[in-house]
């Protein structure tokens, strides 16, 4: 079962997002009101350790489980798409209180109403695909 | 042990486990980025017939759909087996701010006002979730990633575009929280 490791990693992700309470609308509100350090500490720790791991992987040219060198795709240069897209994303993030991962973790918690937001996410992605060529990037 | 991990996890443990998730995916030869799944699902549903953006080999992304299934299962496991039965703890200031907008103090993980049966049965409640979802789906693809792809994977790889995107995420979130919410909920 080659796919099982991805399911297991997803489960770990679902549990950490739940137990850190980062999937809660209340914590996202607390974060955007700068009234707690929790979410900043969480992201800061993840990025600091993540950056250290990426540095070590590059330095020692580590390989993945298939024996292929681990490669990193640099993001395309630009400002407009990242800033405009980022702001649009942020508007929705604070409204629903979940980013894409937590939308699905909340589904596991039995918050069925979040299916409406997931449907919105799919429609929004589809709409982007339709108007993509007419947008500045 | 179960009792111990059923407590809310501190930020430094949570942050370390999130970094571990990213590193595990790197060692599996993949890149952590959740919102790509929206594009994959659109493509799998046949959106490529009308829109070229969805014409790609989505089957190569099956691993990410499996990760998504795991995320749902992880939520379910947390709900069923790792609960301490207490409402989320947020600061008194947040409770007061939210009370002014008509939200009661937390009773659980999510506000009933937005995710309860009553919200599902009301047009404004449904619209809020739908519009929020639309903005998330559109914005994340326009920006080329979400919190996982940019804030975690991108920043860990010291990508300037990701930093710009994350600044955008916060500008948008601050606008909704401080300018839109007072109009919506008062």
Walk me through this protein's architecture.
The complex is a heterodimer of chains A (137) and B (186). Chain A is mostly helical and 137 residues long. Chain A has helices spanning 4-19, 25-32, 38-59, 80-96, 100-108, 114-131. Chain A has 6 helices and no strands. In chain A, helix 1 (4-19) packs across helix 5 and helix 2 (25-32) packs across helix 4. The model of chain A has no long low-confidence stretch (mean pLDDT 97). Chain B is globular. In chain B, helix 9 runs antiparallel to helix 10 (160-184). The model of chain B has no long low-confidence stretch (mean pLDDT 96). Chain B is mainly alpha-helical and 186 residues long. Helices cover 66% and strands 0% of the residues of chain B. The longest helix of chain B is centred in the C-terminal third of the chain and has 25 residues, at 160-184. Chain B has helices at 2-5, 11-27, 36-44, 62-81, 92-100, 112-115, 117-120, 123-143, 147-156, 160-184. At the A-B interface, helix 1, helix 2, helix 3, helix 4 and helix 5 of A face helix 2, helix 3, helix 4, helix 5 and helix 8 of B.
Please render the helix and strand layout as text.
The complex is a heterodimer of chains A (137) and B (186).
Chain A: H1 4-19, H2 25-32, H3 38-59, H4 80-96, H5 100-108, H6 114-131
Chain B: H1 2-5, H2 11-27, H3 36-44, H4 62-81, H5 92-100, H6 112-115, H7 117-120, H8 123-143, H9 147-156, H10 160-184
